[in-house]
Write a structure and sequence with these properties.
Elements (H helix, E strand, L loop, with lengths): L1 H18 L2 H9 L2 E6 L7 E2 L5 E2 L1 H14 L5 E6 L4 H7 L4 E7 L2 H5 L3 E3 L4 E3 L1 E6 L14 E5 L3 H13 L4 E5 L5 H6 L5 E5 H10 L7 E3 L7 E8 L3 H20 L6 H4 L5 H6 L6 H5 L5 H8 L3 H8 L29
Parallel strand pairs: 1-4, 1-5, 9-10, 9-11
Antiparallel strand pairs: 2-3, 5-13, 6-13, 7-13, 8-11, 8-12
Helix pairs in contact: 3-9, 3-13
Length: about 325
C-alpha cells in the first residue's frame, strides 16, 4: 500500500510543478518573446541594413514566437555583449538567451540557467595570416594569440598550450569586439574563438579576408545553444521542443513549401507533429498548430541553416556535425510522441 500511496502523492506534485510557469505566463500576457541575441555575428544573429536581426539564433527566436503565439513576428530582439549576456538573462531583461553560447556545466549550475538544447555543434579554432605559413595549431609555439577575457576560449587556449607543451602569449581583450581591430593591426599573430565565429569574422570584419586562413584543428568541443533561467519548467519545455520541432520537421521531410500538403498525410507521426491528431499543443500549453506555425513561418532546421550559415548565407559553411543523424551528423530530435 505504501507504494500506491507514494505514487498518489508524487504524481499531483509533479503535475503542479510542470504547470507552474511564471515566465511562460508573463510572456503570454505581454504578447511577445524577448530574446537576447548577439548583436553582430553573421550567420547567428546580426542586424541587416534595415535593422532586422538575421541568423540561426534569430530565426530560432522567431520559431519560438510562432510556437507561443502562432506569429513569428511577435519577438523583440535585445542585442547583448559578451559582458552583458548572462546578466540580461539572470535579471529578467530577456526571456531567453539565444546567442551562440557554449553550453557548460558551470553555466547550467552556478549561473542558474537551464540548457535548452544544442542548435550548433562547434569547436574552437585559430585564424592566422597566410604570410606566417602556419598550417597546424601546434606551430603556434611562441605566437601571440588574441582571445576574449573570461570566455571558454581563454580557458581552452591555456589548456591547449599546456597539453601540447607549447608556449603561447595570450593577448587578452576585455570585449569580443576589440579582438578584430587588434588582429587587423598585427597586435597578435592569431585569433582564437569558435570556428563558426572565425568564419563569420573572416568574411565580415577581417581586412583582406583572402589573406587569412582558419587552421583545420579544433581544440575543444563547443556545443552552442539557448539558455533559460532555472525555475520555470513550462517555459523550458516550449523552448526545448521548439528546437526539437525544427529538427524533427527536417527528419520528417516537412518544409515551408510542403507543410500545407503534409496536413493531408496519413503518417501517424506527421499527423501528431502537425496537430492533426491533437495532444502535443495541450501538453505544452499552446495551440495544437504550434509546430505547423514554426515550419510554415520559419522553416525546418535544415532550411534555416542553409539560408543563415550554409550555402545560401554569408559564410557558406558545410553542414558537417550539424547535419541530421541519418546523414552522419549529430542533429537528433527528441521524439514527439
Amino acid at each position: 500500500m505504501r507504494y500506491v500511496l507514494a505514487a498518489t502523492l508524487v504524481v499531483p506534485l509533479l503535475t503542479a510543478q510542470a504547470m507552474a510557469g511564471p515566465t511562460f505566463d508573463a510572456i503570454k500576457a505581454r504578447g511577445t518573446v524577448v530574446c537576447g541575441v548577439n548583436s553582430g555575428v553573421a550567420g547567428f544573429s546580426a542586424p541587416d541594413t534595415q535593422g532586422n536581426y538575421r541568423g540561426l539564433d534569430a530565426d530560432y527566436c522567431r520559431a519560438l514566437a510562432a510556437a507561443m503565439f502562432g506569429d513569428a513576428t511577435k519577438v523583440r530582439f535585445v542585442g547583448t555583449s559578451h559582458q552583458t549576456r548572462f546578466t540580461a538573462l539572470q535579471s529578467g531583461e530577456v526571456d531567453i538567451l539565444a546567442r551562440n553560447v557554449t553550453l557548460t556545466l558551470t553555466r547550467d549550475t552556478a549561473l542558474g540557467f537551464n540548457m535548452v538544447g544544442v542548435n550548433f555543434y562547434d569547436g574552437q579554432g585559430f585564424m592566422v595570416p597566410k604570410r606566417l605559413n602556419v598550417t597546424a595549431a601546434k606551430q603556434l609555439d611562441g605566437a601571440s594569440v588574441c582571445v576574449t577575457s573570461g570566455s571558454t576560449s581563454e580557458l581552452n587556449l591555456a589548456d591547449f598550450a599546456r597539453r601540447e607543451r607549447i608556449r603561447v602569449n595570450p593577448v587578452v581583450m576585455g570585449r569580443f569586439e576589440e579582438m578584430v581591430p587588434a588582429y587587423n593591426s598585427g597586435r597578435c599573430d592569431a585569433l582564437t574563438t569558435d570556428a563558426s565565429q572565425l568564419a563569420a569574422l573572416r568574411v565580415s570584419a577581417i581586412t583582406n579576408p583572402n589573406d587569412h586562413v582558419i587552421l583545420p584543428e579544433r581544440i575543444s568541443k563547443e556545443p552552442l545553444g539557448p539558455y533559460v533561467r532555472h525555475g520555470d519548467d513550462q517555459w523550458m519545455d516550449i523552448a526545448r521542443f521548439t528546437l526539437m520541432a525544427m529538427i524533427e520537421a527536417e527528419e520528417l521531410g516537412i518544409t515551408q513549401a510542403n507543410v500545407d500538403e503534409m496536413l493531408k498525410s496519413t503518417d501517424p507521426a506527421i499527423q501528431r507533429f502537425l496537430g492533426v491528431t491533437p495532444g502535443f499543443g495541450k501538453a505544452l500549453g499552446v495551440e495544437e498548430s504550434w509546430a505547423y506555425a514554426i515550419v510554415k513561418q520559419v522553416g525546418n532546421y535544415g532550411e534555416v541553416f542553409e539560408r543563415t550559415l550554409g550555402k545560401g548565407g554569408p559564410i557558406g559553411l558545410e553542414r558537417g556535425l550539424n547535419d541530421l543523424w541519418t546523414r552522419g551528423g549529430l542533429m537528433y530530435a527528441i521524439p514527439a510522441r
